[in-house]
Amino acid sequence: MSITGIVRKVFESRQRELEKHQNGGQALQEAVLGRLVAEAQNTEYGLNHAFAAIKGYEDFVRHIPVNTYEEMKGSIDRMRHGEADILWPGRVKWYAKSSGTTNDKSKFIPVSQEGLKRMHYQGGFDAVAMYLRNNPKSRIFDGRALILGGSHAPNYNLKDSLVGDLSAILIENINPLANLVRVPKKKTALIGDFEIKRDKIAREAMNKNVTNISGVPSWMLSVLTRMMEITGKTHLEEVWPNIEMFFHGGVAFTPYRKQYEQLITSPRMHYMETYNASEGFFGLQDDPTDKSMLLMLDYDVFYEFIPMDGGDVVPLWAVETGKNYAMVISTCCGLWRYEIGDTVQFTSTNPYKFIITGRTKHFINAFGEELIVDNAEKGLAYACEQTGAEVSEYTAAPVFMDANAKCRHQWLIEFAKRPADLQQFAELLDKRLQEINSDYEAKRYKNITLQPLEIIEARPNLFNDWLKQRGKLGGQHKVPRLSNSRDSIEQLLKLNQ
């Protein structure tokens, strides 16, 4: 029997538990809500919002407002300075650094010990459980796992307290036994300079028997491309003949699927999407033939949803399929009725399955950069101030990675007053975007993942002509400022010829 055949037994009881997601969604979520409120009732937030008096969902809604990061920022900052029992019992030592809000370059999401265990690591465990259930011939544990991670740094110089990418936090706290089956070594995984890191990872991993890989598609592709350069091979299975699985998340996989299928031609290769954010682990693609994900209901995340077409916040058991919702979460990391900023649409309510439809605001997140409109407006204002230019209309979209793993943002700008030097304007815009958005800055680092942005000058009245052509000139109709899709910008570029 293979090692995988022996290890399978560890996952059998959890595979049976997951069947409760089929019919018992409301009961699972009500149990999570009761547990979260009971554990946090003696925290400062719990006392201020009378958690002890909360007996069910209606009380929960009455006692606690819906929150954005701005509303919770003060409490989180106190926690980062070492205060205990603020949003969650005890001191929280870890903070996942995420993309900024309107007012800040970065958000710092608390990650408690309970959150690590009950959300993030449980999600990883369940991903494997589902994969083994779907693939009885798998030999995934007969080799190594390549797991990509970011980096971390001291948090306010407090002892044992760190801030950084969620992936780095997970690697730092992983069970030592897991290090026996994963690559690269921890020291390499946590290197801050991605250019150095990807080379070291490629060299460490290329002679190992890697059976599965985990990470963000754009970052992983960059590492694998480097490994192909070093080895001189064409296909990944020439380096790793037993590769069979990619657990991916962070950004949409669709733009990268073709490149991965060209790189990995083995008929035994499988893919699973995961929805693992700084704020929690929320979903897993349990059926490889279905693009939607199963909402994970027993991870100490209580879900609520705001209809994007208007209406009151509803609990999970009141959602409808086919409607767009903004997601609100309460977690064992101390986030209470927190608007995460993602929008989802349910494809099924028995079990609860969904697709991610985007963000609550216009954005570009093709490569993990999470560029929001507020960033764009501030960047353009700075470039205009420095050059004397004036912008009348603009839109921006990603140019997805080519075969050499190159990508960039493409901006189509209609100037009321054009800059004397368009290249200088582009450089100033790029510089300012890096200053105000840490995720964009990270992806632009040394041009590794994201190349310098490109500006195309639009002819006069291009955007009005486009809106008029579509019957949307005037009124409340607006040009989409940022988009993950190239649909709008391609139509505009065709008109710009």
How would you characterize this protein structure?
The chain is globular, with a radius of gyration of 23 Å. The strands form four sheets. Strands 6-3-7-8-9-10-11-16-15-14-12-13 form a twelve-stranded mixed beta sheet, sandwiched between helices. The protein has a four-stranded mixed beta sheet with strand order 2-1-5-4. The protein has a three-stranded mixed beta sheet with strand order 19-20-21, sandwiched between helices. The chain is α/β, with parallel strands linked by helices and 497 residues long. It has helices at 3-17, 25-40, 44-48, 57-63, 69-80, 113-134, 166-173, 186-189, 194-205, 217-231, 236-239, 254-263, 373-387, 422-436, 438-444, 462-469, 487-495, and strands spanning 94-99, 106-111, 144-147, 152-154, 162-164, 182-183, 210-215, 245-248, 270-277, 280-284, 293-295, 301-307, 314-315, 324-331, 338-349, 352-359, 363-364, 371-372, 390-399, 408-417, 454-457. A hairpin with a 6-residue loop joins strand 1 and strand 2.
Sum this structure up briefly.
37% of the residues lie in helices and 23% in strands. The protein is α/β, with parallel strands linked by helices.
Which features characterize this protein?
21 strands; 37% helix; alpha/beta; twelve-stranded mixed sheet
SSE map:
Blueprint: H1 3-17, H2 25-40, H3 44-48, H4 57-63, H5 69-80, E1 94-99, E2 106-111, H6 113-134, E3 144-147, E4 152-154, E5 162-164, H7 166-173, E6 182-183, H8 186-189, H9 194-205, E7 210-215, H10 217-231, H11 236-239, E8 245-248, H12 254-263, E9 270-277, E10 280-284, E11 293-295, E12 301-307, E13 314-315, E14 324-331, E15 338-349, E16 352-359, E17 363-364, E18 371-372, H13 373-387, E19 390-399, E20 408-417, H14 422-436, H15 438-444, E21 454-457, H16 462-469, H17 487-495
Parallel strand pairs: 1-5, 3-6, 3-7, 7-8, 8-9, 20-21
Antiparallel strand pairs: 1-2, 4-5, 9-10, 10-11, 11-16, 12-13, 12-14, 14-15, 15-16, 17-18, 19-20
Helix pairs in contact: 1-6, 9-10, 13-14, 14-15
